[in-house]
């Protein structure tokens, strides 16, 4: 292996700069221009600090609140609402202008507050800096602020420390670090000064320590090689800065709808003004008509309704222990089509557990999960194993402690063994006091085992026993015999043990071996003097398989997501074999790939293979970010879950970034959704609620656009053909309908029960959008029906064509439009399902009030004067009701035909393998999209 400084600089693994991990310690010190025995001189350290800056993570200054507010103000919908307010003032509708102005102000303030949160992720990351470090300066060890460290500083580390900067290990003793926050690897990593290959992946750089990871065992001396934004944590901070906060699908679709509304509204105003000008109407009359049309065409209640419904969704999510950062994220959840989930602590419990054991040629399974002492070790007949001696052999060669409430101090793997010992009846803390160590061989990554010497009871007598725990291949190589379940010694069956190890590894279990050597009392002094030389001619006790178990609810949640057409992928820092086994247990789709293989693929190849890849092992933060971006490039709405710093960039990039409540503050600040109960299934419930919210928004837009189109057509027809002197309805009548009648209809839609089988449909296609051919055809078709039935009284009403002022004909048209608004809310709350079938109680109680308001507005004198209405006869009311029946027949008949066609296509698909083709009518489109 070429480990010269030149080769290291020429062969970086995945970043620019020196491949420090590939340099021998002495060359790393030389490359850092330092001294391994004396460290840096104080003046040199000060000069370097001035040159490279403090060892701190920095972020760009947040954008100005005024600049954000200005951007919010110039959005098209806001400009349209401002225009409505101005027009309302011009026609003397001061109260309307005030209401709309308040809506504009609310939208601007709300949007500004959300934008100002964009930089919190990096700010939180910066707070993770270690406050103090033990650094060698001028040959003496001193405490300094971690922010004062510079490249070339020599730092001492011990168990319990947070690593203050990225460093190359110069020497180490039994060093292990917990790097799950950076790499996703759930177990501590054995570290040492031995160089790695230049192309070694981040998670496998055992000669390096990284900023803000923790030392779980041993001691080390390291030379600092990167500080601040050049550390691995700094690179994540840079990625967070580069990842923008894109608009949600709802925001993009409402932007599209706003453009359509703008074209329709101002186009209609222009047409009416041109027609009036050609006819010689006065400026006052033209302004009057243009104002009426503008008020009719702009849905002033749209922002309020959407914000209110999203707020309702956010409240419901909070009740289920899911907190959203922005109201728009509620709807985005409903569009989720792909979930990329971190494994450790998200799908799994992040509590190492012994799942199976092989002792003396027999198999045992271990019940219970995590660090709970509940559970037993069961034999082939499910009889509990009572083996105090075995429990001692497992518990004594460990340094970890586990409290009865599951609090662990020390190595997680050792904690799993302590728990197994407890299930065999051994209190590890008491056992270590009762049977103290007379000698020990501490664990070291070079020889991969630990040994302790103590006196302990064996077959009713106290014996001197050397207990050994370590890597199976190493321990097996030192065994000559093995203990049978009858506690007899027989020649070791290496083939059987190796086969068992292979079976355990194939199922994703991490393996450990236990062995013992029985020592004569006369040899105690010799063993104590040199215990390492006695770790041979051992008797194999057995093997254990350890796993980070799944959360009990995770598999069910994955199944529910699959039924909803959502593909779940697992992305983890664990090895691909382990990750693949967990994936199979979860029921994920086929295909597992390692981070190294992932890096070797081009974006084109990875995109092509993504449908067949569902488990990604040994990946880096860059890999996670790349996967999210590639899925988004394919049109997927991606949810990314995680709890560690290494997930933060991908979480921020995702359409729905999901952090666990127990995760790092960085991850929670980067996320759009925080699950306070750390429950993966809560995410699936959140997706369901997001779908319900979107269904209600779609129903509202179906209803609202139908009303707007009918009014625009009514005004255009009246102006073009001089019906009712060119004025279909007075502006005050339109305003009254918008602010009183429509209000209750909208409340009814919001209160309607959730559509059935919400999670049995595939995700909606975000490319289809709210404004799509089917939706526009539906709006136009239903709007045309309301236009025609409201036009009838204006053309064939009871009044003379030359009548001036309020007329019964215009009042009937006003009543038809108002009652059609009420009926439309009932009919259009669902599509293509019927709006006349139960449950309707929730919406019906809201629709009673607008009917009463419409009647009063035609009978009370002061309302007649305000709105320009007159009293109607019983027959005229009956005519209005009869006209409404045409709307009911048209809407329900259309939906009935679409349901029949959908059923026929399903029947044909079931009969001939899907050869039905695209036989559906242009009016028919699925609410979701098929997932391959």
From TrEMBL:
Entry's family note: Belongs to the cation transport ATPase (P-type) (TC 3.A.3) family. Type IIA subfamily.
Catalyses which reaction(s): ATP + H2O = ADP + phosphate + H(+)
Protein name per Swiss-Prot or TrEMBL: HAD-IC family P-type ATPase
SUPFAM superfamilies in the cross-refs: Calcium ATPase, transduction domain A, Calcium ATPase, transmembrane domain M, HAD-like, Metal cation-transporting ATPase, ATP-binding domain N
Transmembrane residue ranges: 76-109, 260-280, 286-306, 708-729, 735-754, 775-796, 808-828, 840-862, 874-891
Gene Ontology biological-process annotations: intracellular potassium ion homeostasis; intracellular sodium ion homeostasis; potassium ion import across plasma membrane; proton transmembrane transport; sodium ion export across plasma membrane
Domain Cation-transporting P-type ATPase N-terminal: 19-93
GO molecular function: ATP binding; ATP hydrolysis activity; P-type sodium:potassium-exchanging transporter activity
DNA repair in keyword set: no
Membrane topology field: Multi-pass membrane protein
Protein origin, superkingdom: Bacteria
Subcellular location: Cell membrane
One Gene Ontology cellular component: plasma membrane
Record InterPro entries: ATPase_P-typ_cation-transptr_C, ATPase_P-typ_cation-transptr_N, ATPase_P-typ_cyto_dom_N, ATPase_P-typ_P_site, ATPase_P-typ_TM_dom_sf, ATPase_P-typ_transduc_dom_A_sf, ATPase_P-type_domA, Cation_transp_ATPase_P-type
Disordered: annotated span: 1-22, 911-932
Keyword list, A-Z: ATP-binding, Membrane, Nucleotide-binding, Translocase, Transmembrane, Transmembrane helix
């Amino acid at each position: 292996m070429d480990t010269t400084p030149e080769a290291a600089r020429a062969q970086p693994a995945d970043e620019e700069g020196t491949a420090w991990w590939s340099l021998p310690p002495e060359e790393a010190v030389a490359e850092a221009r330092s001294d391994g025995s004396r460290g840096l001189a104080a003046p040199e350290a000060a000069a370097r600090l001035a040159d490279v800056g403090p060892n701190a993570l920095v972020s760009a200054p947040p954008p100005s609140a005024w600049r954000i507010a200005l951007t919010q103000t110039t959005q098209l919908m806001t400009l349209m609402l401002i225009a409505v307010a101005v027009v309302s003032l011009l026609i003397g509708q001061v109260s309307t202008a005030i209401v709309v102005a308040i809506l504009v102000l609310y939208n601007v303030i709300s949007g500004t507050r959300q934008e100002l949160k964009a930089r919190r992720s990096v700010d939180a990351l910066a707070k993770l800096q270690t406050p103090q470090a033990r650094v060698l300066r001028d040959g003496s060890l001193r405490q300094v602020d971690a922010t004062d460290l510079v490249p070339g500083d020599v730092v001492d580390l011990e168990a319990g420390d947070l690593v203050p900067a990225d460093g190359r290990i110069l020497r180490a003793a039994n060093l292990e670090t917990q790097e799950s926050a950076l790499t996703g690897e759930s177990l501590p990593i054995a570290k040492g000064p031995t160089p790695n290959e230049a192309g070694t992946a981040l998670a496998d750089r055992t000669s390096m320590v990284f900023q803000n990871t923790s030392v779980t065992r041993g001691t080390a001396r390291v030379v600092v090689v990167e500080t601040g934004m050049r550390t691995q944590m700094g690179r994540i901070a840079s990625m967070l800065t580069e990842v923008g906060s894109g608009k949600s699908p709802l925001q993009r679709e409402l932007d599209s709808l706003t453009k359509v509304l703008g074209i329709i509204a101002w186009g209609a105003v222009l047409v009416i003004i041109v027609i009036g000008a050609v006819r010689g109407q006065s400026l006052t009359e033209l302004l009057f008509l243009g104002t009426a049309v503008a008020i009719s065409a702009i849905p002033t209640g749209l922002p309020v309704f959407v914000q209110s419904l999203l707020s309702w969704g956010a409240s419901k999510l909070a009740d289920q222990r899911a907190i959203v950062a922005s109201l728009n994220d509620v709807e985005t959840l409903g569009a989720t089509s792909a979930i990329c989930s971190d494994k450790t602590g998200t799908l799994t419990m992040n509590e190492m557990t012994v799942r199976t054991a092989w002792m003396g040629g027999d198999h045992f399974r271990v019940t219970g999960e995590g660090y709970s002492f509940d559970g037993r070790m069961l034999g082939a007949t499910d009889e509990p194993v009572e083996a105090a001696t075995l429990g001692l052999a497992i518990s004594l060669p460990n340094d970890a402690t586990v409290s009865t409430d599951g609090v662990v101090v020390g190595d997680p793997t050792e904690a799993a063994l302590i728990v197994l010992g407890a299930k065999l009846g051994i209190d590890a803390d008491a056992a270590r006091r009762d049977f103290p160590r007379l000698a020990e061989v501490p664990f070291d990554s070079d020889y991969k085992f630990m040994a302790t010497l103590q006196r302990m009871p064996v077959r009713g007598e106290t014996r001197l026993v050397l207990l050994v725990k370590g890597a199976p291949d190493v321990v097996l190589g030192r065994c000559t015999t093995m203990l049978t379940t009858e506690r007899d010694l027989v020649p070791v069956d290496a083939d059987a043990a190796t086969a068992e190890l292979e079976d355990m590894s194939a199922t994703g279990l991490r393996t450990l071996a236990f062995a013992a050597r029985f020592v004569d009392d006369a040899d105690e002094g010799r063993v104590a003097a040199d215990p390492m030389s006695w770790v041979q001619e051992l008797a194999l006790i057995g093997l254990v398989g350890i796993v980070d178990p799944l959360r009990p609810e995770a598999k069910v949640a994955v199944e529910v997501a699959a039924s909803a057409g959502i593909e779940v992928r697992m992305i983890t820092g664990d090895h691909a074999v382990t990750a693949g086994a967990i994936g199979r247990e979860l029921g994920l789709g086929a295909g597992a790939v390692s981070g190294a293989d992932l890096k070797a693929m081009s974006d084109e190849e990875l995109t092509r293979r993504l449908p067949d890849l569902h488990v990604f092992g040994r990946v880096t933060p860059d890999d996670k970010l790349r996967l999210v971006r590639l899925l988004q490039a394919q049109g997927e709405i991606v949810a990314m879950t995680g709890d560690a710093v290494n997930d933060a960039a991908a979480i921020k990039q995702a359409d729905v970034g999901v952090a666990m409540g127990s995760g790092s503050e960085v991850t929670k600040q980067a996320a759009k959704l925080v699950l306070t109960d750390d429950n993966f299934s809560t995410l699936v419930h959140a997706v369901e609620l997001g779908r319900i919210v979107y269904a209600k928004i779609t129903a509202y837009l179906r209803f609202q656009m139908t009303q707007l189109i009918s009014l625009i057509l009514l005004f255009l027809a009246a102006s073009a053909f001089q019906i009712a002197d060119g004025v279909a309805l007075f502006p005050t009548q339109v305003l009254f309908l918008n602010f009183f009648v429509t209000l209750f209809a909208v409340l009814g839609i919001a209160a309607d029960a959730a559509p059935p089988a919400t999670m049995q449909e595939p995700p909606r296609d975000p490319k289809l959008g709210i404004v799509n051919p089917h939706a526009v055809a539906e709006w136009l078709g239903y709007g045309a029906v309301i236009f025609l039935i409201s036009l009838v009284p204006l053309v064939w009403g009871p009044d003379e064509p030359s009548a001036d002022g309020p007329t019964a004909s215009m009042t009937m048209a006003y009543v038809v439009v108002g009652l059609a608004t009420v009926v439309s809310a009932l009919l259009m709350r669902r599509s293509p399902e019927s709006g006349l079938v139960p449950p309707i109680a929730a919406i019906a109680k809201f629709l009673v009030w607008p009917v009463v308001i419409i009647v009063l507005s035609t009978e009370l004198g002061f309302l007649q004067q305000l709105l320009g209405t007159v009293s109607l006869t019983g027959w005229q009311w009956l005519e209005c009701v009869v006209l409404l029946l045409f709307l009911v027949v048209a809407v329900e008949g259309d939906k009935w035909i679409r349901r029949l066609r959908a059923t026929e296509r399903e029947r044909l698909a079931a009969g001939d393998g899907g050869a039905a083709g695209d036989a559906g009518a242009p009016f028919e489109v699925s609410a979701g999209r098929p997932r391959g």
